[in-house]
Prior knowledge:
Elements: H1 3-17, H2 23-31, H3 37-49, H4 68-78, H5 86-93, H6 97-107, E1 111-114, E2 116-118, H7 123-140, E3 165-168, H8 176-179, E4 180-182, E5 202-207, H9 214-250, H10 257-279, E6 286-293, E7 298-302, E8 315-316, H11 319-322, E9 326-327, E10 335-341, E11 346-351, H12 356-365
Parallel strand pairs: 2-4
Antiparallel strand pairs: 1-3, 5-6, 6-7, 7-8, 9-10, 10-11
Helix pairs in contact: 1-3, 2-3, 5-6, 9-10
Amino acid sequence: MTKQEEVRKRIYEFYLNNKLQGEKFTVAHFNAEKIPRSTIYDIIKRVENDSGHKRVQGSGCVAKIMTPKRIRRLKAIFDHSDRVSMRTAGQKFGCSHSHIIKTLAKYTDIKSYTKQGIPHRQENQNERIKTGIDRLYCVFKGKSVILDDESYFTLSHSTINVNSTYYSSNRDKTPPSVKYRKKRKFEPKIPQTWINPTGEFRIGVKNLFSIFPTSLKERVKNEKKEKEWDPFHKFKLAEAAKHLSEFEKVCPNPYTEKEKLEHSNLVQAIECLNLLEQKYEYCGPVYDCILFHDGTNFRACIDTSEKGALEECHLLEPFKISGRYARLSDIDMLNYSINVYENGDVLSIVINSSSHGTHVAAIAAAYFEPEHEMNGIAPGAQ
């Protein structure tokens, strides 16, 4: 009995004896042994059909014969190319992707290689991108276009991010466009979907503690200290105290000159850690603020990612134009909107300093349903 047959028999008998506990119990048991779930479910199905655990000759997939003509066609598809995946080729030839892999290995010299990096774009490509965005702006001016990741590209197998391999029988003859993966030494920060006809951006910084309500500032400070400072500091303090205690056990007083220096160093380490605890102060996050004019309105982005990942941040217009707002982070749970004054010289970040505004708005214009007792004086007014 082969090892594979032994595994199939164990799964078959185990499920037969523990059938009342359900399929998931058997799957979890053998999945812990890193046996593929597909194999486990296949054996479970055999138990249900009462067909036994042994393979019956002829019950598997029909073998696909790769004729010389099909092999030449397969080689033409893969050689010096990155446009077709193994699974896609399997669908074209009516077989599994593993059969494609075995055929390439057995009948051709084609192998899989990882792409290397080269500079991302040429100047004429950048110009074409700008022209394309301008055309989009002309066509969709006045309309709100929402993209899920704030980027776009021509969707094909060679442009998706996960594709980092290509196939070749001779790497020296493979075209550079296939062999290399385009990249930049410094990736651009401004998302391509931001429309800025002038190309002028205004940049500033803001310490958020200067606009946080006092109660929120204290809460954020305490949470930051408890989660990021205290665990590390207490561990180091306990470690220093342990070293001092061990030293005093091994080297009782009076100390030699060398031992005096070592003892003094251990004591000073504890005092230094205690002093750091007394002087600790979290000054709050500092965010970059980017402001520009899209030809119609000012738009602003606050880099809440703190790493320049602007595509992950919200791009807002003045609140009186769009009525849109965003949240700074899940830690502070503070919503904000923006206003722009003095022709773009001043960017104002507006936050809720208390619940008073919400309270007054509810009294004036709260709306639940017609004739509801919790409606405001003018339900639904804006």
